Amino acid sequence: MFSLDICKRMYLGVCFFADDIIFVDKTREGVEGKLELWRSTLKSKGFHSSRSKTEYMECNFSSNRPSEGIVTLGDKDINKSTHFRYLRSIVQRCVAQASI
């Protein structure tokens, strides 16, 4: 089961799950920087990432911090997601829901 504790341990990291990658940072700018570095590294090796399939999920670990706005990659806005699926768990705002 995925828990808030696991999400906090991923904080400021990069996690790989099969063909998915999770970038975690304290700020929107930090995530955008990691996305851009990943995109440019892939491009230099002859690969590309799908901007249309790229999504982000915001987790405010401090309830008094407002949303920081929209995440962008280059000049394209990234779609915001309310959840993601990992194995048989659905993670919503870094709290695991019932397995499906």
Report what the structure shows.
A hairpin with a 2-residue loop joins strand 8 (89-92) and strand 9. The protein has one domain (4-96). It has helices at 4-10, 28-44; strands at residues 14-17, 20-23, 55-56, 72-73, 76-77, 79-80, 84-86, 89-92, 95-96. With 100 residues, the protein is α+β, with helices and mostly antiparallel strands. It has 2 helices and 9 strands; from the N terminus they run H-E-E-H-E-E-E-E-E-E-E. The protein has a 3-stranded antiparallel β-sheet, with no helix packed on it. Strands 1-2 form a two-stranded antiparallel sheet.
Quick overview:
The chain has 100 residues and is α+β, with helices and mostly antiparallel strands. The protein has helices spanning 4-10, 28-44; strands spanning 14-17, 20-23, 55-56, 72-73, 76-77, 79-80, 84-86, 89-92, 95-96. It has one domain.
**Approximate helicity band:** 10-25%
Main beta-sheet strand count, sense and barrel state = 3 strands, antiparallel
Helix/strand class: alpha+beta
Radius of gyration: 14 Å
Number of strands: 9
What is the strand content? 25-35%
Query: Unreliable runs, pLDDT <50, ≥5 residues?
Result: none
Count of distinct structural domains:
1
Q: What is the overall number of helices?
A: 2
Helix and strand sequence: HEEHEEEEEEE
* Distance between the first and last residues' Cα: 11 Å
Give me the side-by-side strand order of the main sheet.
7-8-9
Note the overall shape. Answer: globular
Q: Mean pLDDT, rounded to whole units? A: 73
